[in-house]
Amino acid sequence: MAIRYIDADEVRFTPNDGVFVDVEFAGSGEVICGLEPRRLFPTSGLTRYITLLDKDGNEQAVIRDLDRLLPDAKAVIENALAEYYRIPRITRFIKTEEKFGIWMWTVDTTHGEHTFEIRHHLSSVKPLYDGRVLIKDANDNRYEIPDVNALDKKSKKMILPNL
């Protein structure tokens, strides 16, 4: 089956339970329910190339660019993506300690206080070109520091030796 590319006003999206959406194709009237939008390039392509997966993980369509969708359709997809890619943003470091190469970090985030382990520091903490830092803990939970330079002095001191 050929991949369907969605470019503009040829579809209507409606929310369907959190991270899922239903799509109706204009012209044919075909409706596909329960699709899960995911970014094909989750760190660099925030608005481009969004795949729509069915319940079996099969790709049903690809949105080339969210900005080309009608405002209502764009909002439905953005809400589903925000729910799926909800990543706590670290606002402050409370405590860091290291034992036998395993780091324990206690941080304040946009979703409350969290304590987590970092086992493989080099692969778990990724500074990005735009000043953000992405962190994956030992349980595959993700965290983000939107701007290391915006952290308070104590927090910077705790994280900068680790970058």
**How many domains would you count in the coordinates?**
2
Share of helix, binned: 10-25%
Tally of DSSP helical segments: 3
- In one word, what is the shape? elongated
- Computed over alpha carbons, the radius of gyration is 19 Å
β-strand amount: 35-45%
Q: Stretches where pLDDT falls below 50 for ≥5 residues?
A: none
Structure description:
- This protein is of the alpha+beta class and 163 residues long.
- It folds into 2 domains: 5-84, no CATH class; 90-162, no CATH class.
- Helix content is 15%, strand content 43%.
- It is built from 3 helices and 12 strands.
- It has helices at 71-84, 121-124, 153-159; strands at 5-6, 11-15, 21-25, 31-39, 48-53, 59-65, 90-99, 102-109, 112-118, 125-127, 133-136, 142-145.
- The strands form 3 sheets. A 6-stranded mixed sheet has the order 1-6-5-4-3-2, covered by helices on one side. A 3-stranded antiparallel sheet has the order 7-8-9.
- A hairpin with a 5-residue loop joins β10 (125-127) and β11 (133-136).
- 17% of the residues are buried.
Secondary structure elements and pairings:
Blueprint: E1 5-6, E2 11-15, E3 21-25, E4 31-39, E5 48-53, E6 59-65, H1 71-84, E7 90-99, E8 102-109, E9 112-118, H2 121-124, E10 125-127, E11 133-136, E12 142-145, H3 153-159
Parallel strand pairs: 1-6
Antiparallel strand pairs: 2-3, 3-4, 4-5, 5-6, 7-8, 8-9, 10-11, 11-12
